[in-house]
Amino acid sequence: MMTELVLVEGVSDVLLISYFLQNVYGWKHENSNVIGITENDAYEHIESLAKEDSQLILCGVGGNGKFASFVEKHRVNTMLIEKDIASLMIVTDRDEDTDGKIARRIKKALGSLTIRGGQWLSNDITDSFGQSKTINTYLLVIPADENGALERVIINALKDIPEEAELIKEVSTFINSLKAEIVPELYQTNKSDKATIGTFFSIKNPQNAMRSFVTFISKIDWSSSESLRQLFLPFQYLGAEKPEAEGILNEK
Amino acid sequence: MGHINSIEINRFRGIKQLEITDFSNINLIVGDNNSGKTTFLEAIQFLFAKTQIGSIKKIINQRSVLSPDRNSFFVSFIKLFDIDQSADQLEFDIYAESSNGTLRFQLSGQEKNISGDEALQLSALSPREKLQYKRSSAFLPETAKVFIGRIASQTNKKIAEQNIRCTSMDTGLPGVAMKKEVQYIPSFGHMRYDLLQNIVDNPEYKKLTIDILRQFDSEIADICYTKADDGTYLETIITQNGSSMPFSVYGDGIKKILYILNKMFASSDSILLIDEIETGLHKKYYDTLFPVVFALANKLNVQLFIATHSNEVIDAILKYGDYENETEKKDPIKVITLKKIKSPDSNAINVVARNVTGKYVYDNKKVFEFEVRL
């Protein structure tokens, strides 16, 4: 039995990653989780997935900048010591930060555990019985190599899904055309990306235009996006042996 | 004052090496079946045992409190030692730091095969019993076993040593009363009665006990010994309407409560060990009983070690910690989980412990499935 804990920012991240894990990596939805972690408020979102004898618990921490408070409120560091958890993966938006800066921010919340962008690290810790155990950590910063957040990942994904590519291209052009005179606010990348996504899904599914992103997730075949497959490649190691870290153990 | 602060157990039953420090006044001992909870409670008792084999027998026999088989003392005795030890070099050692200084109990020696006849000569049987054995030689075994060794104990600076010997034919060794510092409640002990010994002659304890019992059965007016028609004395409850009701007509709950209170009064300024406290008690009584037991333990300065399998017991005891209201006072509760582990190197089994505060358990249980029993 391998238990994997994945912390992501918001409900949209949970839904997209859950979709991907189910449709690409063969995980199945489960009603409860072995850790017994539950949402503390309406902003948090927790989903449980199972594959063979492994369980993966996907926690939306309630939004950008909420990792530290989630870790504290749910006593995640104690949970990692006391429960049989194989690894902790954190998926967070890049926005305009570097991997190193993000890792340093996340590490502050994780106490003695070390985490690094794009690399599985093996952390040797001592449990409360005085026994040694290993927790693997991985920080996945999205998008991989440009500024932005989940919306940028989604736009990139839609661009390489043949059935969606034309529409997303048209919508992007339209949103760009509004920047100069009508909505200057759209010069901000995050707002422009959100507007693009919102417009795309409203056109794609007009009957659900007033509904949340949750409604749209299942309408797209995300698994056919090569960029998403590449970005989410580290998920292949959830529920499986992790690749050996490149010589960085218990870094302080 | 005889509270223990820490303990170290070496090569005792299934425990190869175990050290637990920083005990509190209320210590919950939890863990899976066969994880070493009763062994741990026995280890504490050994710290207060006399350097006599009868004292060891008294502790061993607690495991078979309801068993009619009293012939397996030698087998049970040898099982005190870690199973991986060689028969010619058996030893266990229990060490503790207490409010009275160092406590230590060490038993060492060797087990040998001898003839039944030799065993009979070496046994602690009386000359008459030996003669009876010889007359009925058909029952004399061809081979037998003998343990020859030494007990050493330490209480603060006082050290006592005694050579001992027992054979597989020794079944009738008398048990020796334990020193006052420790009292033990086995899980089914209340079924043996003897529940009023420390209560009826002390008016204060008796009044307190009746007040507590009334919280469970308002019809109870008094507790006393009454004389039965055959001249024997019965432990009896007198009801509000004057009826005498022997304990035998009451359920296990009342008997268990009385048994705990009876032993508590005998444990003043010392230690009370309660094995599987939930046995015989309905969980609806926990919230009433435990605060009373803990308040009484506090008043009488009794250090408690309570073994349990029950999550409801753990939750009810944690309520006593009042953890929702943050206070600066020292946490009165420690939760000690025992777990058997296999050494990755040798495959040998050992017992390890997690010793955390009641607040740590309470806070964890609020936010995730923190299983203290394992």
Could you explain how this protein is built, in words?
- The complex is a heterodimer of chains A (252) and B (374).
- Chain A is of the alpha/beta class.
- Chain A folds into 2 domains: 2-145 and 230-248, Rossmann fold (3-Layer(aba) Sandwich), CATH 3.40.50; 162-220.
- Chain A has 9 helices and 7 strands, in the order βαβββααβαββααααα.
- In chain A, helix 5 packs across helix 7 and helix 6 (162-179) packs across helix 7.
- The two termini of chain A are 29 Å apart.
- Chain B contains 10 helices and 15 strands.
- Chain B has helices spanning 37-46, 53-61, 73-78, 116-122, 127-135, 203-216, 252-266, 286-300, 311-319, 358-367; strands at 4-12, 15-20, 26-31, 90-98, 101-115, 143-155, 158-167, 182-185, 220-227, 233-239, 244-246, 271-274, 303-308, 333-342, 349-357.
- In chain B, the strands form 3 sheets. In chain B, strands 2-1-4-5-6-7 form a 6-stranded antiparallel beta sheet. In chain B, strands 8-12-13-3-14-15 form a 6-stranded mixed beta sheet, sandwiched between helices.
- In chain B, helix 6 (203-216) packs antiparallel against helix 7, helix 7 (252-266) packs parallel to helix 8 and helix 8 crosses helix 9.
- Chains A and B meet through helix 3 of A and strand 14, strand 15 and helix 10 of B.
Write the layout of secondary structure elements.
The complex is a heterodimer of chains A (252) and B (374).
Chain A: E1 2-8, H1 11-23, E2 28-30, E3 45-51, E4 54-60, H2 67-73, H3 76-82, E5 87-93, H4 99-109, E6 121-126, E7 132-142, H5 150-159, H6 162-179, H7 189-204, H8 213-217, H9 226-231
Helix pairs in contact in A: 5-7, 6-7
Chain B: E1 4-12, E2 15-20, E3 26-31, H1 37-46, H2 53-61, H3 73-78, E4 90-98, E5 101-115, H4 116-122, H5 127-135, E6 143-155, E7 158-167, E8 182-185, H6 203-216, E9 220-227, E10 233-239, E11 244-246, H7 252-266, E12 271-274, H8 286-300, E13 303-308, H9 311-319, E14 333-342, E15 349-357, H10 358-367
Parallel strand pairs in B: 3-13, 3-14, 8-12, 12-13
Antiparallel strand pairs in B: 1-2, 1-4, 4-5, 5-6, 6-7, 9-10, 10-11, 14-15
Helix pairs in contact in B: 6-7, 7-8, 8-9
